[in-house]
Amino acid sequence: MKEDVRRLYEEHGRSLLAYASALLRDPSAAEDVLHQVFLKLVAGRSSIEGPPAAYLFRAVRNTALNHIRGQSREVELDSAVPWLESPDASRETALALQSALQTLPADQREVVVLHIWGQLTFEEAAAVVGVSPNTAASRYRYGLAKLREVWK
Amino acid sequence: MTGPKDIEARLREFRPRRPAPLEYHFELRRSRAPFWFAVAAGIAVAVLVGSRVKWADRRPVAPAEPVESATLGSLTTLALNDPDAFDAALTRISRASLPDVGRPGGAFQQLAKP
Is B17 part of the contact surface with chain A (CB cutoff 8 Å)? Predict the structure, then answer.
């Protein structure tokens, strides 16, 4: 396996998995999407253009959206699988935050995840999502405001 | 909790779960590979081996052509990793192992006799 791909996986795997989980709401499908992206890199069927993090988040997004389009019907979501680890190591705390995140509109949720756990700037997050930086920042603010209401 | 900074700080205390090691998924992907690839490779090897045994004593002495060694494992690996190379290998092997149907006095001509 290519060392540089392994290094990218170690470096960005957590945040990419969080992003895919936020998009798909299905942790096992999210993990599958993540590995499709990396398997393509290892096999040389895709190559990184530009900053690696931005490329990887875009690739995960495109693969996740393809996955959603490929679903012929709504699948039963396994909401009891945490994709976040809480500071107190409590599964319930992690699931409570995930549930709160699920109440956000998808476009707000993904910017929140990209900025908080992907550590992308609004410019970078905007490029991943395909909107202007102002729109990304606005979605983030609305997302946080709603999260403050629903997440106790 | 009052402002966005507070909730940001609280969110950042959470950490995304670590995905399974990449190697694990390589193995999983291999085990999930289309079953028919393995079946096709197995059938191809069985046919090739069978035809060698059956036709060994009927084949004319032909100019020595290097026969590619093929095992089920090597063909399966090839089929999974590089389908085009797998096809090419089967073509090469079949040229060296299958009977020459156009050979004068060969099996097909004998069978075609009324």
Answer: yes
Question: What secondary structure letter does DSSP report for B100?
Answer: -
- B4 vs A144: CB contact, 8 Å cut-off? yes
Contacts of A78 in chain B (CB under 8 A): none
Residues B76, B65 contacting (CB under 8 angstroms)? no
Q: Which of A115-119, B17-21, B40-44 has the lowest mean pLDDT?
A: B40-44
Distance from CA of B14 to the nearest CA of A (A): 5
pTM: 0.64
Q: How confident is the model at residue A148 (pLDDT cuts 50, 70, 90)?
A: very high
Side-chain half-sphere exposure of B87, counting CA atoms within 13 A: 2
Domains of chain A, earliest start first: 1-77 (1.10.1740), 90-152 (1.10.10.10)
Answer whether residue A107 shows pLDDT above 80: yes
User: Taking Cα atoms as reference points, which of A43, A54, A57, A47 lies closest to residue A14?
Assistant: A57
The closest alpha carbon to A143, from A98, A102, A112, A100, belongs to A112
Domain ranges of chain B: 34-57+66-101
Taking only the tens place, the pLDDT of each residue in B27-85 is 655 655 565 566 677 777 777 777 666 655 555 555 545 545 566 667 777 777 777 78
Helix axes B72-81 and B35-55, enclosed angle (nearest 10): 140
Between B8, B13, B18, which is nearest A14 by CB? B18
3-state secondary structure of A9: helix
ipTM over 0.90: no
φ, ψ of residue B15 to 5 degrees: the values are -125, 135
User: Using the beta-carbon criterion (under 8 Å), do A84 and B19 form an inter-chain contact?
Assistant: no
